[in-house]
Amino acid sequence: MGIKMKKIFQDPDGKEYSVAKKKQLGYRVDMVQKLYQNGPMSATDLASCMGLTFPTAMSVLNTLSSDGIVLNMGPAHANAGRKPNLYSVKADAGYFITIFIDLAGTKIIVYNFHNQAIHTEFLNNAPIQDSYNSLILIADALKQILITLNIDQSLLLGTCIVMPGLVNHFNSENLTYFERKEFSLKEFLSTNFPEPVWIENDAKAVAIAEKYYGQYSGSKNLISMWIDQGLGIGLILDGKLYRGSSGFAGELGHIKLTANTIPCKCGKLGCLETVINLNHLYQLYLNEINNNSKANINSASDVILAAHKGNDAAVRSIARFAKNLAHACAMVIQLLNPQTIVICGKLTAAGDYLLIPLRQELLSLSSMDMIKNTSISLSDIADDAANLGALKILANSIFRPIDFNSTNI
User: Fold this and answer.
1) Distance between CA atoms of 77 and 83, rounded to whole angstroms?
2) β-strands 340-344, 240-242: how paired?
3) Global confidence as pTM
4) Residues 374 and 233 in one domain
């Protein structure tokens, strides 16, 4: 089943097919895509949305069923009349490997073809700053995961690795963390991970996740603000991810607009992200208590938890942080006039302790005419946003258009 599933999506190098054969394969890809996106459907509905005759739709369904890719679920539940059979893509028809590697470690999530996470594993010994060694550890861990899950290689539909830094999605390059000339990131990934292998910047992957899986999925102009050890934004403009000419759009955190002289990891002083990152939130708390007793508060997450328990110093530190964040939001609003700004990452746990002072500060930084039609909210998919973005990237990569005018797939 897995080999046949993979053949639907992957090109047999150099193999030539007739236009008729390509159309048959195109129908199969289109039908699997419709079932993947919409869930169980009847043959009549499939024929209608694909522009096929009913006999042609049934022929494609029968082929996919015989290949073990599609399941006939039997009659639908209906109040009256004849109940049509519903068809669904099997959950085990294929698997997606998503990997999110950042400064804290690596999260691996394996999804089945129903977008269900069947395995999640965190590697705290594989952070991005240990770039080369971490990749080896991740590759070894993934091999063990696949052995444990007993997944055949032929069922793996690809890998997407999300990471911070200046990432070129199409050339598989990360100019921030993988700069050694003697090392080819693209070659290493293609050799050690199930293909096709994609890499993506963390903020862009989160923006993709928000567009397809978040509460504002209907927004055509959406900006996601990914706040972790730095600040990055993902731009969904006119319904599409905007990458910029070199693929690096969204590095808002490295604009020098603050008066401080805090060193940034990029080498400059006073970048915006030096005052908009989780470590800085924790430092603001230490300043509030004059570095006195921390009461078991040792991180930004602890500060947020303390605020919810009524700790005044924690509440004040989040409010001060929100004022910094408001400056970033004002810049985005003035420049792009988005419909929605979604705050993403661990900071979302702060809730109204963050949103209320942020919105109040924003009133003094931007005109009402500019901000009145922009909603600012907290992500509802914060924990797995990067991996969900990777999942969507993989799905988009396999459901590509087929050129029926070419005989070479």
Assistant:
1) 7
2) unpaired
3) 0.89
4) yes
